[in-house]
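[step 3/7] inverse_fold.run input=structure_tokens len=136
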């Protein structure tokens, strides 16, 4: 049975849900070179968010996915600055494919996997990452 689409109460464009999303790359930036990488990541995240909107997902669900994408972008850029400098040569798409797999996204550096509450949040983040990977 096909999924019925919900009415779009939150808007019809990603910027309706995330008015500050164009600022995300600036928020992720550690060094000037990060800005271009962040913009490239955002250029891949935006059609994915549009896809979620077009699927008719609820406003809160879309907001959660967007929050997770923002965390993914930040984590990728932080890894490029901290331990994975050699990956700067990869395109934004290749970066996502490098850091995201069927298990989910990279372990977020600021979360404790032993904390059950944080683990539940990380599992939701991983679900968003898997959904993004499938979309790409």
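[step 3/7] decode complete -> sequence:
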């Amino acid at each position: 049975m096909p999924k019925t689409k919900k009415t779009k109460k939150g808007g019809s464009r990603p910027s309706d849900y995330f008015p500050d999303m164009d600022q995300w790359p600036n928020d992720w930036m550690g060094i000037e070179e990060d800005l271009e990488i962040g913009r490239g990541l955002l250029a891949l995240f935006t059609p994915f968010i549009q896809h979620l909107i077009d699927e008719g997902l609820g406003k809160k669900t879309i907001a959660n996915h967007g929050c997770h994408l923002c965390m993914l972008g930040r984590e990728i850029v932080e890894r490029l600055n901290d331990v994975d400098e050699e990956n700067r040569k990869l395109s934004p798409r290749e970066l996502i494919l490098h850091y995201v797999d069927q298990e989910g996204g990279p372990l977020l550096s600021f979360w404790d996997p032993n904390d059950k509450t944080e683990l539940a949040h990380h599992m939701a983040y991983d679900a968003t990452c898997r959904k993004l990977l499938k979309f790409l």
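[step 4/7] annotate
Residues 59-82 form the longest helix (24 residues).
The radius of gyration is 15 Å.
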